[in-house]
Automatic annotation (TrEMBL):
The gene is lpxD. It comes from the Bacteria. The active site is at residue 239. Homotrimer. This is UDP-3-O-acylglucosamine N-acyltransferase. Belongs to the transferase hexapeptide repeat family. LpxD subfamily. Pfam families: Hexapep, LpxD. It is an enzyme of class 2 (transferase). One of its GO terms (biological process) is lipid A biosynthetic process. Keywords: Acyltransferase, Lipid A biosynthesis, Lipid biosynthesis, Lipid metabolism, Repeat, Transferase. InterPro entries: Hexapep (IPR001451), Hexapep_transf_CS (IPR018357), LpxD (IPR007691), Trimer_LpxA-like_sf (IPR011004), UDP_GlcNAc_AcTrfase_non-rep (IPR020573). Catalyzes the N-acylation of UDP-3-O-acylglucosamine using 3-hydroxyacyl-ACP as the acyl donor. Is involved in the biosynthesis of lipid A, a phosphorylated glycolipid that anchors the lipopolysaccharide to the outer membrane of the cell. One of its GO terms (molecular function) is UDP-3-O-[(3R)-3-hydroxyacyl]-glucosamine N-acyltransferase activity. The lineage of its organism: Bacteria, Pseudomonadati, Pseudomonadota, Gammaproteobacteria, Vibrionales. SUPFAM superfamilies: Trimeric LpxA-like enzymes (SSF51161). It comes from Veronia pacifica.
Amino acid sequence: MASITLADLAEKLNAELHGDGSVTISAIAGMDKAGDGDITFLSNSKYREHLEHCQASAVMVKEADLAHCRSNALVVSDPYLAYALTAQILDSTPRCAVDIAPSAYIAPDVQLGGGVSVGHNAVVESGVVLGDNVEIGAGCFVGKNAKIGAGSRLWANVTIYHSVQLGEQCLIQSGAVIGSDGFGYANNKGKWIKIPQVGSVIIGDRVEIGACTTIDRGAIDDTVIADGVIIDNQCQIAHNVSIGENTAIAGATVMAGSLKVGKHCYIGGASVFQGHMEVTDGVTVTGMSMVMKPISEPGVYSSGIPAQSNREWRKMAARVMKIDEMHKRLRSVEKQRDSDK
């Protein structure tokens, strides 16, 4: 188990230490469950009353909340960010793979960087280039001529198709599939004719892709995921989609082909995007939205109906079904009004 003294942690976080710096911190816990050896954080001042009962060895707080702390404290400008950085420092997640497993298959012409690890039953095909310290978990498949940048990690059973390019310091969770065929077909008198997908997938640096997410290769040009993008579990990114830097996409989102999403966007879970259109930079789309036309202005966009009681929903649905009839009646009343003037 990783541990660190509070003084050393304060130095790493550039935090202001209040209390005993020799205290050892070995875990992060919620404010209501934290105990000896734990550190917690308060990011929203409206919950500061809970500090009085907190049993943590230390708390990360803003300056305005320091007076309410009964324990050791680290004063930081952003407690939630401090929590994230502390979690990295104390992280005990095992490596995806260690060394080269005897059961792994690596083609003779694969270019291996220094410190590469490949897990049991993984397959790395001909022409692949693996950068320094790449970790490939058990059961992964890396297809011909793929390139994986230094420090990138693939958890178990990830599939990287041929000619896909993955940047440096990327993290791909189990079951993800990158470079599968896009959904391209032509119809010949009712029969579907497959269109070979000859593009690839180009992924930048520091990209994270969630478990069982699929990113399709381009039909002709490439599917492109820029630096710093984070994609949650079970998302579908279709062929020729382009996603800008540092955009975040929550789980179960579906993006149709040739969609272009800008930089620094936030996409809520289970959202659906029409293809062949553009979403500009700095857009937030709330969960379960259906985006059917381009978005050219930054801002927050929503659709869908939040959950309500079944009785309320049934009443609303019944009224919605009568909207056309109500519209016609309203137009009739307006015409009668105009004729009476």
